[in-house]
Every structure is written in structure tokens, then in C-alpha cells.
Write a structure and sequence with these properties.
Strand order of the largest sheet: 1-2-3-4-8-7-6-5
CATH class of the largest domain: Alpha Beta
Oligomer: single chain
Number of helices: 7
Number of strands: 15
Strand content: 25-35%
CATH topology of the largest domain: Protein Transport Mog1p, Chain A
CATH architecture of the largest domain: 3-Layer(aba) Sandwich
Largest sheet: 8 strands, antiparallel
């Protein structure tokens, strides 16, 4: 074997430990972000919405955390399935503290912004959590002052703001959050189907079994004051096949329960005057892709007026 070959082989053998040491040292300088398998409970990636960094006396603490369907249960354990089944997409969580607070102090306010699939989903979640009789506030498309904060919806966002002690300025923070979401202050499209017939007292949402009827679901009910008398208008919307099935279900219910009704029409729009021993006289109005029930102190004249308004 030539001497030069032997020399090369000896050099290679001598260099192997050096090469191995170099690989080892280089391997210790890995990017921990690429190999960290520990769950932090939330993503710390830059958020997709621009929540306010400052509002009045409140300053944003740290970064906005995000949760997806995969880890939502880590933040709202026991409530995650409900949210996912109601169109949940992403949750953004921001913590705020008063100016001058100590660095390690707990937040004074937590803002949870739930990006839902559709405005209807956000509205439904808001109404499910609002409860009856909560104080309505003018923020977003609709909002309520809760026992420990404010909840509202704006477009497909449902926002829940929690305070840990009395914070009079929380509504100002809610308005700032709403502004940054960039949702136009136009009417919620589903509300367009409700008639403008008097002073609005309250708006509620019933996910299922409206007024005890097991075939009537996803109802928006608005209560009006008309000259000191209360009227309730219930709105259900859907595609033609859904509305047709709902009409058939009402007819079957009337037949089975022995409830009498009279069918009428105004400007080509069909409605029924229903004589119910439990609800009294009420009206069922067919309006294309919607059905409206009108209850309370409603006269034939008012029912005709409502039908005309819906038609126009």
C-alpha cells in the first residue's frame, strides 16, 4: 500500500473525534422554538386582531394569547364543547392592569374575544350567557352589563370582559375593544326581519323549545312597548325547506291540540290568527324565509300593520 494512502487514512482517523465534537457542540445550539414539545396552554404567536394596548386607566399586560379548537378546553374546561358546537373558531385572551400597577400583580380585567363562525353564532352565545333581565348597554351590535363585567357581540365576535373588582371604566374598555374589531355599526341582518312597531324593551334568544314547542328552535324574541301594552314578536329564519317543514309542524300541532285558527292574507302575505287557550289569541305570519309569531296585547289591526311592515 502506498505511503501516501496510509498517511491520508491516519489523518482521517485523527480528525474523527474533532468532527464528532463539532457536531455535538453545534447540536447544542438548536432553536428551542423548533423542538419544544411542552404545552403552554395557548399560542403566543402574533394575534390576528389588534386589541387596544391602552384604554383609559388600563394597559395591556404581555401578549395576547390565542386558543384553537384543539386546546380551548385548557382555558374554558367544561364549556369548550358548547362553544365548538356553536361555531367557535379562535379565542383571543388579553389581560389589562391599571396604570402604575406592580409588574407581578394580577390583572384587573381579562378580555376574552371569541371569533365565531357567523354573526348568528356570536349572537346566540351572547344571549345564552346573558340571562333574562340583564342590563342592556350600547356597545357592539348588542351588549349586556353582567355581574362582573360586560358581554357583547360585534359581527362574528363574541366578547366577554371580566373584572375582578368594581371597575367603573370597564364599559370604556369594552367600547375600545369593539372599535379595534373593525365591525361596521350596521344593523345585525337577522334583526332586519323584526318589525319597527314601538319601543324595544328587550331582545332574547331561545336556542330550542320556544314556548314549550319542541319543534321551534333558534328564535329571536323582541318585546315592545306600544302605548303601555307589551307585544312579543318571535322570529325564526331558514331556507325554504326548513320554513315549509316548520309550517307543517305548526299545522299538525294545531290539529293535534284542537287549536282553532283563521287563515288570512294581506298583499299576498299569508298569516294565521290562532286561538290558543294557553297563549290567548296570537298571530303566525309567513314571511318568505322567516316565520314570525306575535303574542301579547295584539289586535287584528296591529297584526295587519305588522304584516304590512314586513311586506314593505
Amino acid at each position: 500500500m502506498p505511503k501516501t494512502t496510509i498517511v491520508y487514512r491516519l489523518l482521517i482517523i485523527a480528525l474523527l473525534p474533532v468532527i464528532g465534537l463539532t457536531i455535538y457542540i453545534t447540536g447544542q445550539r438548536y432553536d428551542p422554538g423548533l423542538m419544544d414539545f411542552k404545552s403552554t396552554g395557548a399560542s403566543e404567536e402574533p394575534h390576528a386582531i389588534n386589541l387596544p394596548r391602552e384604554s383609559g386607566e388600563f394597559l395591556l399586560k404581555g401578549r395576547v394569547r390565542t386558543f384553537s379548537k384543539d386546546n380551548l378546553f385548557e382555558y374554558v374546561n367544561g364549556h369548550a364543547e358548547y362553544l365548538i358546537n356553536n361555531g367557535f373558531v379562535t379565542l383571543y385572551v388579553a389581560e389589562y392592569a391599571r396604570k402604575g400597577s406592580a409588574a407581578g400583580q394580577s390583572p384587573d380585567v381579562v378580555v376574552d374575544v371569541y371569533a365565531m363562525g357567523r354573526p348568528e353564532h356570536a349572537f346566540g352565545v351572547l344571549m345564552d350567557g346573558a340571562g333574562y333581565g340583564n342590563n342592556e348597554v350600547k356597545v357592539g351590535l348588542m351588549g349586556y352589563k353582567t355581574e362582573n363585567g360586560v358581554s357583547f357581540f360585534a359581527g362574528s365576535y363574541y366578547v366577554h370582559i371580566t373584572t375582578f373588582k368594581e371597575q367603573p371604566e370597564v364599559l370604556t374598555l369594552a367600547e375600545a375593544v369593539n372599535d379595534t374589531l373593525g365591525v361596521k355599526a350596521e344593523a345585525f341582518s337577522l334583526f332586519d326581519g323584526l318589525p319597527n312597531i314601538g319601543k324595544v324593551v328587550s331582545t332574547s334568544y331561545f336556542k330550542e323549545n320556544y314556548r314549550g314547542l319542541d319543534f321551534v328552535h333558534n328564535v329571536i324574541e323582541r318585546r315592545y312597548d306600544i302605548d303601555g301594552k307589551e307585544i312579543q314578536v318571535a322570529l325564526t329564519t331558514g331556507k325554504k325547506d326548513v320554513i315549509d317543514k316548520l309550517v307543517l309542524a305548526f299545522m299538525a300541532y294545531f290539529e293535534k291540540s284542537g287549536i282553532k285558527y283563521e287563515k288570512s292574507a294581506v298583499a299576498g302575505m299569508i298569516y294565521y290568527k290562532v286561538s290558543d287557550k294557553y297563549e290567548g289569541d296570537w298571530f303566525l305570519i309567513l314571511a318568505g324565509d322567516a316565520i314570525l309569531g306575535v303574542y301579547g296585547a295584539v289586535s287584528d289591526e296591529l297584526a295587519t300593520k305588522i304584516v304590512t311592515k314586513i311586506k314593505n
